Amino acid sequence: MKDLVGGNQKRARFQALCQSLRPDLLRFAFWLSRDRALAEDVVQEALLRAWKARDSLLQESAAKPWFLTIIRREYARTFERKRFVTLDVEDLIAKEEPMLAERDDSDLAEMRAAIFRLPQEYREPLALQVLMGYSTAEIAAELELSNAAVLTRLFRARKQLRASCGEDTRMDPEE
Fold first, then answer.
1. In 10 A of CB 45, how many CB atoms?
2. Could you write out the three-class secondary structure of 113-155?
3. Domains of the chain, residue spans
4. 29 three-state secondary structure
5. Which CATH number describes the domain made up of 2-81?
6. Distance between CA 61 and CA 54 in Å, rounded?
7. Fold of 104-164
8. Cα–Cα distance measured from residue 53 to residue 69, given in angstroms and rounded to the nearest whole number
9. Least enclosed by CB within 10 Å: which of 2, 132, 147, 159?
10. How far apart are CA 107 and CA 162, in angstroms?
11. 145 CB contacts (<8 Å, ≥6 apart)?
């Protein structure tokens, strides 16, 4: 009887953990996919996989990185299953399809391109902080760096972003 009660408590704790992390997981999946529906599907599948493998999570403190890894892998799996629809561009041009019209997302596209041009060592801590809401200490733990190294990388990432967007960074303080 004790095992049954203990098992129910474990399941309830895991379920509460999933609920508390779900917004962060959704934000990360959306950042990966840039598609709300796909992000929700990826998170749902990842939570299902996590539920099935919940006994492999040994410490609750390691839950967030564990879930993020599952999200990353589940997102990659979507491309194994997905069959892209091909369209004849010549037909679309002939019909003057509105889907060929360029949207005015130039600022957003420019910022995304600037972020993806950052070296990995700067891009990753910036994404963890801005998109996932990680604290400096959490980023340091996730990337196995010191707090000072994380702060330096974040400073350099922002400076490089501002410079690539045309802002004058010569008057910035030195590291």
1. 18
2. HHHHHCCHHHHHHHHHHHCCCCCHHHHHHHHCCCHHHHHHHHH
3. 2-81, 104-164
4. helix
5. 1.10.1740.10
6. 14
7. Arc Repressor Mutant, subunit A (1.10.10)
8. 13
9. 2
10. 13
11. 125, 139, 153
Two tokens, residue 139? 């980023």
Is the distance from CB of 111 to CB of 165 less than 8 angstroms? Answer: yes
- Show the tokens assigned to 99: 């889907």
Judge if pTM exceeds 0.70: no
pLDDT tens-digit map of 30-54: 988 888 999 999 999 999 999 888 8
Place of tokens 């009887």: 1
Contact between residue 79 and residue 125 where contact means Cβ atoms under 8 Å apart? no
User: Which stretches of the chain score pLDDT less than 50?
Assistant: 1-5
